[in-house]
């Protein structure tokens, strides 16, 4: 006779402390990824739960404004935008960003963005629209650090250990014919950027769009790495313009540095 199997034991390391919260987060991620409304059946299938369970969670999320009904199902709600804005506003440099950019005669007429580190990506937090052309990356979007200017700028500020681990975690999936394909190429860009003081993306993220960016020193301990960058069309990105924008960004970064953290000369 075969011995009776005992109950399945779940270790503390693998046990989900709050399945309902995890499922709710799964629904939000599914709607974010879809970029379009999802039906209740699609949500249940994506999350791997019963349709009745998905319905109960969606009702709770809808009540809190995290999702809302659409003609063909559910989509993200306004509350998610409010939370995103509140997250960005926690950081002093984001709060001061717009005033600093508006006060600079060159930067005020550019598309200027501020992004933070979430290795191996950069996440865009705020954007100043100084021109009509839609050159900027949508807020909340991610781009690989190894390609975009703001990402390269954050790499400039990293020590060798952090740079090594970031490159190891990066996936070299070229976005354009100009995208780097090896860690050695990234390291070469980092060395060049450190010499000049700012990073340059010559169409590695989007064909025809170049970028110039500088790292921002954390305002206080515990703040994430951030960078300040400008997006411009390839036809405008001559050496003189890029250098002028780089200089303006360095000055703006200085103004976005906590005066109490500056080292005395």
Descriptive terms for the model:
Beta-Lactamase; six-stranded antiparallel sheet; globular; Transcriptional regulator; 2 domains; DNA binding; 9 helices; alpha+beta; DNA-binding transcription factor activity; 41% helix; 265 residues; Arc Repressor Mutant, subunit A; disordered N terminus
How would you describe this structure to a colleague?
- The protein has helices at 19-34, 40-47, 51-63, 78-89, 92-102, 149-156, 160-169, 183-196, 239-255, and strands at 67-70, 73-76, 111-118, 121-129, 142-144, 199-206, 209-216, 226-233.
- The protein has 265 residues and is α+β, with helices and mostly antiparallel strands.
- It folds into two domains: 19-80, Arc Repressor Mutant, subunit A; 90-261, Beta-Lactamase (2-Layer Sandwich).
- Strand 1 (67-70) and strand 2 (73-76) form a beta hairpin.
- The longest helix has 17 residues, at 239-255.
Structural class assignment: alpha+beta
Number of strands: 8
Distance between the termini: 83 Å
- What can be said about the biggest beta sheet? 6 strands, antiparallel
Q: In percent terms, what proportion of residues is strand?
A: 15-25%
Low-confidence stretches: 1-10
Shape by Cα distribution: globular
Number of helices: 9
Widest beta sheet: strand line-up:
5-4-3-8-7-6
CATH topology annotation of the largest domain: Beta-Lactamase
Name the CATH homologous superfamily of the largest domain: GAF domain
CATH-derived architecture of the largest domain? 2-Layer Sandwich
State the share of residues found in helices, binned by percent.
Answer: 40-55%
In CATH, what is the class of the largest domain? Alpha Beta
Mean pLDDT value? 91
């Amino acid at each position: 006779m075969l011995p009776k199997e005992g109950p399945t034991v779940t270790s503390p390391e693998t046990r989900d402390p709050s399945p309902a919260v995890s499922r709710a987060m799964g629904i939000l991620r599914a709607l974010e990824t879809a970029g379009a409304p999802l039906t209740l059946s699609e949500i249940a299938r994506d999350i791997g739960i019963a349709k009745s369970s998905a319905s109960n969670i969606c009702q709770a999320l809808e009540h809190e404004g995290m999702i809302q009904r659409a003609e063909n199902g559910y989509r993200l709600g306004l509350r998610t935008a409010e939370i995103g804005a509140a997250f960005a506003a926690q950081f002093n440099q984001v709060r001061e960003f717009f005033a600093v950019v508006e006060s600079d005669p060159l930067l005020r007429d550019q598309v200027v963005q501020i992004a933070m580190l979430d290795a191996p990506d950069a996440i865009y937090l705020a954007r100043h629209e100084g021109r009509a052309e839609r050159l900027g990356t949508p807020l909340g979007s991610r781009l690989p650090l190894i390609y975009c200017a703001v990402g390269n700028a954050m790499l400039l500020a990293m020590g060798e250990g952090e740079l090594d681990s970031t490159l190891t975690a990066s996936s070299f999936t070229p976005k354009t014919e100009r995208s780097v394909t090896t860690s050695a190429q990234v390291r070469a860009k980092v060395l060049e950027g450190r010499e000049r003081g700012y990073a340059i993306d010559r169409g590695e993220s989007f064909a025809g769009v170049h970028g110039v960016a500088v790292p921002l020193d954390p305002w206080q301990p515990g703040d994430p790495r951030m960078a300040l960058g400008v997006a411009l069309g390839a036809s405008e990105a001559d050496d003189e313009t890029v250098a002028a924008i780089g200089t303006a960004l360095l000055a703006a970064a200085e103004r976005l540095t906590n005066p109490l953290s500056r080292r005395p000369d």
